[in-house]
Design brief:
Number of strands: 13
Order of helices and strands: EEEEEEEEHEHEHEHEEHHH
Distance between the termini: 54 Å
CATH architecture of the largest domain: 3-Layer(aba) Sandwich
Radius of gyration: 21 Å
CATH topology of the largest domain: Rossmann fold
Number of helices: 7
Largest sheet: 6 strands, mixed
CATH superfamily of the largest domain: P-loop containing nucleotide triphosphate hydrolases
Strand content: 25-35%
Oligomer: single chain
Helix content: 10-25%
């Protein structure tokens, strides 16, 4: 306990991981366990949050406030699609996908890109398992629209050291979230980048989808600066419920083309006079239309 007449001190820290009421924070260059108050102002806390920690003694510390967030990666939670923050204050979302095993899913990439855009995050795409048999030309066709939007798009093998160094250079000194389908190699990449072992799972032989290995986001500093946040693999990434205008803003290629639509408020669902189908790749337009249908 704090000695009589001595006020508890407060420090700033960064959340590394949340496990129920116990939170691991990075404080003055070292990790320590602290407690989380119920209904903490600005919370609930997530990996990447900047927090204020009150020290009641050398052993006892508690988070008393979560500072305003600079960026967020959010997903939809529950049937109403309530926004739930997964990671805060990152700079970059690295969307990791396998070219095969599990199959490449552009619509999942598009969902993460929307979440990144509305959350104020830059996004890049990393394709793994290129040592497996695949359609190389088809892969480049899938990646071309993303590169045209200005997103970095890398392809290689997660266990290949030169490829890992390319990913490291992409991240630089920033805080990067590794996100994507289960079984695509996020944990392998995290371990190679940080030197910190993470659970690595197999791909289900029955349905060819990855098994979850990382249960909750964990922020891990990178040697030389920056950090990665390894997130749980998903099979489906539900977006928070949003209006059509917000969803369209998450598709900057569609938003630009929409300026030439004949009617104001065009939903780009096939009406005459819509300028979008002739200006946007079919895979992107189909992703937008499916997400729009999900919001209704």
């Amino acid at each position: 306990m704090t000695p009589a007449g001595t006020a508890p001190s407060e420090t700033e820290a960064v959340v590394v991981r949340v496990a129920g009421p116990t939170v691991t924070v990075l404080e003055d260059g070292r990790e320590r366990e602290v407690r989380l108050t119920p209904r903490v102002p600005g919370g609930p806390a997530v990996a990447g949050d900047r927090v204020r920690v009150r020290h009641d003694s050398d052993e006892e510390a508690i988070i008393v406030a979560v500072e305003p967030r600079r960026t967020v990666l959010e997903r939809g939670d529950g049937p109403e699609g309530r926004p739930r923050t997964i990671v805060a204050n990152a700079d970059l979302v690295v969307i990791v996908a396998a070219v095969v095993d599990p199959p490449l899913r552009p619509r999942l990439i598009d969902r993460y890109l929307v979440a990144a855009t509305i959350g104020g995050l830059e996004a890049a795409i990393v394709i793994t398992k290129t040592d497996l048999a695949h359609d190389a030309d088809g892969l480049q066709e899938v990646l071309a629209p993303y590169r045209a939007l200005g997103h970095a798009a890398l392809a290689g093998v997660a266990k290949d050291p030169p490829f890992i160094e390319t990913v490291r250079a992409l991240i630089g000194g920033r805080v990067a979230i590794l996100a994507g389908h289960s079984g695509v190699g996020k944990s392998t990449i995290t371990s190679a980048l940080t030197g910190v072992p993470r659970a690595v799972g197999a791909v289900s032989q029955k349905v060819r989808t990855g098994r979850h290995t990382t249960s909750d986001p964990r922020l891990i500093p990178l040697p030389g600066g920056g950090a990665v946040v390894d997130t749980a693999g998903v099979r489906t990434f539900h977006l928070p419920r949003m209006d059509r205008e917000t969803l369209e803003a998450g598709f900057p290629d569609i938003a630009r083309a929409a300026a030439d639509c004949r009617f104001r408020g065009c939903a780009h669902t096939g009406d005459a006079g819509c300028a979008v189908p002739d200006a946007v790749p079919a895979q992107r337009l189909e992703s937008y239309r499916r997400m729009l249908a999900d919001m209704r």
